[in-house]
Automatic annotation (TrEMBL):
Residues 4-71 form the HTH gntR-type domain. InterPro entries: GntR_C (IPR011711), TF_FadR/GntR_C (IPR008920), Tscrpt_reg_HTH_GntR (IPR000524), WH-like_DNA-bd_sf (IPR036388), WH_DNA-bd_sf (IPR036390). The keyword DNA-binding applies. It comes from Actinomadura sediminis. This is GntR family transcriptional regulator. Keywords: DNA-binding, Transcription, Transcription regulation.
Amino acid sequence: MPESRPPVPVAARIREAILAGEFVPNQRLIEADLSDRFGAGRAAVRAALLELANEGLIERVQNRGARVRAVSLAEAIEITEVRMVLEGLCAAKAAERATDADIAGLREIGAGMRDAVASGDVFGYSDLNQRLHARVREISGHGTASDVLERLRAQNVRHRFRLALQPGRPQTSLPEHLAIIEAIAARDPAEAERAARAHLASVLEALPQVLPDESR
């Protein structure tokens, strides 16, 4: 008899729905609707919303319940600056720890990214982009940095989609991603960190071009 898997926590399921764009910024999250959708009790949903509010992914509005928090351009820039440091750290650690199998897997993702750019598959490229960053974090073995980056990724999900749709963006970021892969493959921590930071610096430059300054 197959082993039964424990149920996925409600907070994780709501978080993934936000990451997938199923819930959009400023959308109200109604406890009764979430309870029906995820087959969970109201108490479990309430606890999940509190957890996500503590992460900064949603916000509680007095007398109006919860809603998905909208991240301004200024916040998106700050998040990307923090990501620059942590992604650089993870890339350096990955270069120190990567096995031959890890490197082969990264290069496979890189080849898929090349194909996606060549065929104009913007969403396929975006998915592979996220897979690459996640895999580098996993290889790094740095749990604390990975946890922080996962929370930041959730807050910045809308900006990621807008960047992915910017004309020419995949062509710009592809060589940046390939440079990260090759530095890790060369097991050169300093170069891997430099390549990761250079990629995030490129993201910082692109953000004001595609996002309105919502702080105004």
